[in-house]
Automatic annotation (TrEMBL):
Positions of the Phosphatidic acid phosphatase type 2/haloperoxidase domain: 144-254
Protein name: Phosphatase PAP2 family protein
InterPro entries per record: PAP2/HPO, PAP2/HPO_sf
Region annotation (Disordered) ranges: 1-57
Length: 271
């Protein structure tokens, strides 16, 4: 019996077909090509950088995230409103941070970054830049993202002021009156700087720049909160509750921007 391996290699039609585009046979890696995919690559139009089609990523289940944050915020608000072990521990932590070695001048500078007259002009400048870029690029409804960011910022005093009145928490030693929970300065910084970053991300091509800008925003907001605690303007729980509330506003803004981006991308694709 002759050795069949000595001859030239014989073609294997099954394998050849298996690697042919559009094949639908058994063990074919492209067997799904014969039926329309859920997201046709020939139809899908990736959004251009700087267009609404490249809105920031949205959590897979934003409702779940918002629900969890709402429960956390309700818990923190309850702890800040009544005398509990957590509130007493919060006040001990606040006194310890106030007596830390961070120079008072540096802490004051960080706290000032949460002032309305500092954070809001930054957001307004970004709004003007993004609106100019979007209108110049012919983006449909270019005015919606800046308007949504302004609404998110306007929601800060609309939510913070009633909460301060209802909770009525007294401030740290040396601060007169009540109404210190949640921290308005922290929320102003978080929403103003966070919304500015969300609006800028679609216009940035470099992934590294996008990531570093996001990280810088998070660090800045945390630094503002720490400066407020170090200077004795707020308790840590005031800042924590404000951060949670701000996260809820920013996630809502992100979901809205994502939906606007998808709508804008479809309109551009059909035009």
């Amino acid at each position: 019996m002759g050795d069949t391996r000595s001859g030239p290699p014989q073609p294997h039609p099954g394998r050849a077909i298996a690697h042919t585009t559009g094949a639908s046979g058994f063990r074919s890696p492209h067997r799904s090509d014969s039926r329309p995919p859920q997201t046709p690559r020939g139809v899908r139009r990736p959004g251009l950088d700087g267009r609404l089609g490249t809105s920031p990523p949205v959590p897979g289940r934003p409702t779940l995230f918002l629900g969890g944050l709402a429960l956390l915020f309700a818990f923190l608000t309850w702890q800040a409103a009544v005398d509990t072990p957590l509130r007493r521990a919060d006040e001990r932590l606040g006194r310890a941070i106030t007596g830390s070695r961070l120079p008072g001048g540096a802490a004051e500078f960080l706290a000032d970054l949460g002032n309305f007259i500092v954070a809001v002009p930054v957001l307004v400048a970004v709004l003007a830049y993004v609106a100019w870029r979007a209108r110049r690029a012919g983006t449909p409804r270019w005015w919606l993202p800046p308007l949504a960011a302004l609404v998110a910022l306007a929601a800060v005093p609309a939510l913070i002021a009633p909460l301060k009145a209802v909770v009525g928490r007294a401030g740290p030693p040396g601060m007169e009156g009540d109404g210190f929970y949640p921290s308005g300065h922290t929320a102003t910084a978080a929403v103003a700087y966070g919304a500015a970053v969300l609006l800028l991300l679609p216009w940035l091509r470099d992934t590294y720049v996008r990531r570093e800008l996001t990280i810088a925003c998070v660090v800045l907001v945390v630094a503002v909160g720490f400066g407020l605690i170090r200077r004795g303007y707020h308790w840590p729980l005031d800042v924590a509750g404000s951060l949670v509330l701000s996260a809820m506003l920013l996630i809502t803004l992100t979901v809205f921007l994502h939906r606007v981006g998808r709508t804008g991308g479809r309109r551009q694709g059909g035009s």
